[in-house]
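Practice problem 4.
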């Protein structure tokens, strides 16, 4: 059976809303084939970027208001995308929403963007809130993308995504494990902003800065890096454990040091697990300096795919998760999140 689905993804780095329109077909063998048919990133306006960036500081009432408002925004952007591309066959919309709070130890995670609002605007079945069920089941609610790595990209030893955070998934002892490695663009973008740029293009700022060895050692000694998976990171963690360490430093040197730090942590995972071939995706893949440093620290072969996969792999996989939800198949792997068992997640409206 063939499905046509739209996947929506908004990441912590606030680059914009990714929309991916793809077809999926399940083979007799149980594997899935996919084709990206259209994909686009809708950059956030300054107003929306500020709303999402500062949502963590809102009152409960204001968050509920934003949840609804952002849901209608998503619906409008989807409708715009559908009209632009004259799309006719759409079985479902799968929306990740935008993460505001992520505290699995306290049994909650919040992704705003009410799916019912998207449904009202588009009149297409919508699946949303993919993370909460896993958290209630004792999982971290993240990472969810490994189900797509397993079903769509199994020819690689591992899949690494470099976005606001770097996260990886790979098979070990017959099970796919996954975890957040370390913050990346969520920190790099912050200090590139101080130098008048939205991000550190090609890692040019980092290349021009000087690595602070003392700060690098302090960053590398953070206890999270010694924890065993499953484990995941959120903005609150960065605010508590990373940002205070970076105060009072030259932005160029911070970018140089933090880029080195991210490379050290990524390469360590490759080497510890003897990974031979890794697929790189996410905006950080374009940071050639970061990729260069990672490669200098490992013998792992780095595979950089076509731009469509780099930019839209996460949105593509949420579209697949929506298809799996529609067919009542498991779309969350407990081996990746730490929940009690594999399950089928997402609210359908």
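Answer key:
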């Amino acid at each position: 059976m063939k499905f046509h689905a739209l996947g929506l993804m908004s990441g912590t780095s606030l680059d914009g809303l990714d929309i991916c329109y793809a077809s999926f077909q399940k083979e007799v063998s149980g594997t899935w084939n996919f084709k990206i048919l259209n994909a686009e990133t809708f950059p956030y306006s300054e107003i929306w970027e500020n709303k999402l960036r500062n949502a963590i500081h809102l009152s409960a009432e204001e968050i509920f208001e934003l949840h609804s408002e952002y849901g209608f925004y998503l619906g409008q952007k989807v409708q715009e995308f559908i009209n632009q591309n004259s799309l006719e066959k759409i079985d479902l919309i799968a929306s990740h929403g935008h993460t505001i709070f992520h505290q699995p130890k306290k049994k909650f995670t919040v992704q705003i963007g009410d799916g019912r609002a998207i449904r009202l605007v588009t009149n297409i079945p919508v699946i949303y809130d993919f993370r909460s069920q896993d958290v209630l089941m004792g999982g971290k609610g993240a990472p969810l993308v490994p189900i797509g790595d397993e079903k769509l990209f199994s020819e690689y030893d591992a899949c690494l995504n470099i976005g606001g955070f770097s996260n990886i998934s790979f098979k070990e002892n017959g099970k796919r494990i996954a975890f957040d490695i370390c913050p990346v663009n969520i920190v790099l973008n912050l200090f590139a902003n101080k130098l008048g740029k939205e991000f550190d293009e090609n890692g040019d700022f980092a290349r021009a800065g000087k690595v602070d060895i003392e700060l690098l050692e302090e960053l590398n000694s953070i206890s999270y890096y010694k924890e065993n998976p499953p484990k995941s990171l959120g903005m609150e963690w960065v605010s508590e454990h990373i940002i205070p360490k970076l105060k009072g430093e030259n932005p160029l040197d911070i970018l140089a040091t933090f880029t080195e730090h991210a490379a050290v942590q990524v390469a360590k995972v490759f080497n510890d697990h003897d990974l031979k071939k890794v697929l790189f995706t996410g905006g950080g893949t374009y940071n050639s300096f970061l990729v260069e440093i990672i490669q200098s620290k490992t013998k792992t072969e780095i595979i950089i795919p076509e731009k469509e996969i780099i930019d839209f792999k996460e949105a593509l996989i949420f579209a697949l998760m929506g298809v799996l939800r529609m067919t009542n198949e498991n779309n969350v792997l407990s081996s990746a999140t730490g929940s009690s068992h594999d399950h089928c997640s997402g609210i359908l409206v």
